[in-house]
Amino acid sequence: MGIKYKLKLKDLKLEYFKEYFSPFLKYFKKTKKIENYSDLKEFIKKKSAWVTQVTLYGYLKTRMGAKYVLMFEDETFLGSINKAKWNIYAVALQDLTFYTISYLKNERNLHDTEKSKDIYFEILEEEIKNEIPKEIFENAKKEFLKRFENINWTDYYKSLPFNSSALALYNWSPIAEELKTLDKKIVLNSMILKWDNIKKEFIDIINI
Q1: Which residues have C-beta within 8 Å of that of residue 131, sequence separation ≥ 6?
Q2: Sorting pLDDT into bands at 50, 70 and 90, what band is 12?
Q3: Which residues pair with 34 in a beta bridge?
Q4: In sequence order, which ranges of 127-176 are alpha helices (DSSP H)?
C-alpha cells in the first residue's frame, strides 16, 4: 500500500511531509472503474490506507496543535503511531471488504462471499514487505475470520458497516484517555464521514 510505517529520525522532515500529504494528493487522482475482483482489491487497499492516514493524522494534528510536528522527534511516539496505523488499517480493510462484497451480493447479484477472504488475505500478505508487525498480521486474520462467520451479508452494507474501523481509530490513537473520552463523538464521526465519500465513489465506479 502507499503507507510507509517505519520512520527514521534522520529522514524526519521528508518522511513527515510524504506521510502527511501523500494521502491527500492521491485521493484527488481519478479512480478507474472497477471491472473485476483485482480492481476491487486495489480499491479496497488504497481507500483503506487513505482513510486510515487522513483520519489518524488529522486527529493527532488537531489534538496536538503546534506540538504535532515536534512529536515526530520522539521515537516512542513514532512507535505508537506506527502501531496505531497498522491496527486501524487492518480493521479498515475488513470493513471495506465486507461492505463491497455485501453490496455486490445484494445489488449486483454476485454471491461468492468467499471472495472477501481472498481479497483480505492477499492484501495482508502484500503488507509483509511493508513490515506489518507479525502480531497484528495474525490477529487481523483471526478477527477477519471471526467476523466472516457471523456476518449478515444481506444487511451489512446498509447497517453501519464502518463502525468497527471508526472505533479502532478511537481506541488506537495515541492520545491520553481522558482527552479521547472528550473527543469520542468527533473522532468517530470524522471517520464515518470519510467512509461516506468512499461509499459514493465505489457505487459510481463499480462495473462488475
Answers
A1: 5, 6
A2: very low
A3: 206
A4: 134-150, 163-172
pLDDT tens-place string over residues 76-90 = 888 999 999 999 999
Burial class (CB in 10 A: 0-12, 13-18, 19+), 12: middle
Eight-class DSSP state of 130? G
In a domain, 8, yes or no: no
Alpha carbons 9 and 138: distance in angstroms, whole number: 29
Distances 30 to 125, 201, 204 between C-alpha atoms, Å: 26, 10, 12
Domain assignment present for 21: no
> Is 5 part of a structural domain of the chain?
no
Averaged over 187-196, what is the pLDDT? 97
25 grid coordinates: 494528493
| CB contact set of 49 (below 8 Å; sequence gap of 6+) | 1, 2, 3, 23, 89, 92
What phi and psi, each to the nearest 5 degrees, are found at residue 206?
A: -70, 130
Residue of 145, 190, 147, 143 whose CA lies nearest to 166? 190
Residue 124 contacts by C-beta under 8 Å, 6 or more apart in sequence?
90, 93, 132, 137, 140, 141
The answer to whether position 19 is within a domain reads: no
Q: Does pLDDT of 56 surpass 90?
A: yes
The total domain count for the chain is: 1
* pLDDT above 60 (res 153): yes
**What Rg value do the Cα atoms of the chain yield, rounded?**
17
pTM of the predicted protein model: 0.86
Identify the pLDDT of residue 30.
59
